Amino acid sequence: VDHEQLADKVRQIAAAEQATVRFIAKPQAAINEGSDSPVEGSLALAQTSGTPGPDSGVRLVAADDALFGIDVQTGKPLWRRPLQRTPGAWPLITDQRVYAGDARQGELVCIEEATGNLLWRQPLEQRLATPVSHGDQLFISGGGGKLYVVDRPDGTLRGTVEFSQPLPAAPAVDRRSGAIYVVGNHSSLYT
To answer: Is the pTM of this model over 0.90?
Structure first.
């Protein structure tokens, strides 16, 4: 096999793949009210034991179908929000806010860490990886081959970067250069 010929073919394939990646501007305001839930009611049971911790504040606990805010001092649940995470995806906590994908509703939600109150939700129509924050924006990989760009303060969808393959993992951000790295399902790394 001619290595130069093979290298040339690989470059051609990479260029063709790169040509399919594009940003689609699609401004869409977030929704500031809750959505209908298929759950008629819920009951959270908890039991605490041991001595209170030295910290104060709220810690997040992610269960199969809900997020819980737990008082660090007492270990008691403060709030519960129904939310079905995509397997392997975790909420992002920054600036006293929690950002998480809800696979059941097909949306990204933002809630207050202290109270569990909904601040906004943005319908994105697919299962989402862990959100990543850079500046005032969130970047969220979707299983359908889209990287969503969402404003952190108000949840406005700025648009999507569309890829030719699923994006199975959260993007990574180089904080110094601002470069965003996205892994495709077929061992492709995009910047």
So the answer is: no
